[in-house]
Amino acid sequence: MKFSVAVLAPLGAGMLFCVLLSLATGNGPFALMTTIGQGAWDGAQNAASTVVKVTPLLLSGLAVSLAYHAGLLNIGAEGQLTLGALAAAVVGCAAGALPPILLAPLTLLAGAAVGGLWALPAVWLQEKRGVHEVITCLLFNYIAAYLADFLAQGPLGDGSAMARTPLIADGAVWPCLARFGGVGVTFAPFAAVLLALLVHAWLTRTAWGFEMMASGTNPFAARAAGVPVSAWRRRAFAASGAIAGLAGAFEVVAVHHRFYAAFSPGYGFDGIAVAFLAGNAPGWLWASSLLLASLRSTDKWLQIILGMSPNAITLIEAVLLLAVVSRTGWERLAASVASRISARGGPGPDAPPDVPSVAEERGR
Q1: 92 and 107 in contact (C-beta within 8 Å)?
Q2: According to a count of CB atoms within 10 Å of the terminal CB, is the N or C end of the chain lower?
């Protein structure tokens, strides 16, 4: 993916909004951006906290991106992530007698399976009843949140007043590669980046990836060419839900070691911004997820240092998302400016030479 105006313009819009918001709150023009940089990367512990947040953001963005390439919009990653985390916690507790070599992958597989199954009704209703997948996913997000809360408080809880499950077995916990203060970094962020690169290679280098993208880009032409469009859309949406569920499972095995209600601050919804900010290119999701993770790591710092509400981060994310979804307008504006510059400056050095018309040749 080329970093064109369609990608750089939203970043510029976000920086301009940071300057205006900083001035409006009585701070210096660059105080907000400086605080974001310090809160996310000043010190090993802050940097480790930012890196840990990359995993759920990147995988949620990958889930949105994969479905988008099939012509679908999965905004149900939050619910799929929540139930995937709950399933991983349940398996991590119930199957604790298994050896770690079996328990660790089984825990992740459970989260991915539940996330994929939770995504299937949306695409089924879209195909059979014409219900838009966005509506179904929004409703299923609420169902997943309340269902997980009920289960964590009741039959799957640890017996305390808090809505949480017991700790998973030690064999399901991913070991820390390094610990900085109270923050431990596992292999999870690197596994998420590796998975995104593999999906990018699958989409761009394989015939199956081409068929899936053709199903989303032009389903009529793809169907005429013999591509099973409906099957690919179902597979893509199920895989999208599985990746979102995997994001929740990683949070359980690598960060919290249990499920508790409202453990996600909206990672599934942030995945939409992560995907669109990277132009839905899985190979560049690491960059957009790193940006969103930096913002997520500084919400408390804004309140402590600048006296600003942590909701300012939500405002910045909203501006970035609005700028990204209007990228068609940015591209048209850039093309219009380029054409005007070209018209004023005349033909460039690479312009083709003037070719005489047929009438001119006959006149000669």
Answers
A1: yes
A2: C
Confidence at residue 178, expressed as pLDDT on a 0 to 100 scale: 86
How many whole angstroms separate alpha carbon 241 and alpha carbon 147? Answer: 17
pLDDT tens track for 205-219: 999 999 999 999 999
Listed in sequence order, the residues at least 6 apart from 46 whose beta carbon sits closer than 8 Å to its beta carbon are 38, 39, 40, 297
Backbone angles phi, psi at 38, to 5 degrees: -70, -45
- The confidence band for 133, taking pLDDT boundaries of 50, 70 and 90, is very high
Tell me how far apart the alpha carbons of residues 360 and 74 are, in angstroms, rounded to a whole number.
Answer: 59
Q: How many CA atoms lie within 13 A of 187 on its CB side?
A: 7
Distance CA 62, CA 243 (A): 7
- The amino acid sitting at 253 is V
Q: What is the pLDDT of residue 180?
A: 85
Binned at pLDDT 50, 70 and 90, residue 1 comes out as: very low
Instruction: Report the distance separating Cα 255 and Cα 175, nearest Å.
Output: 10
Torsion of CA 350, 356, 357, 358, to 10 degrees: -140
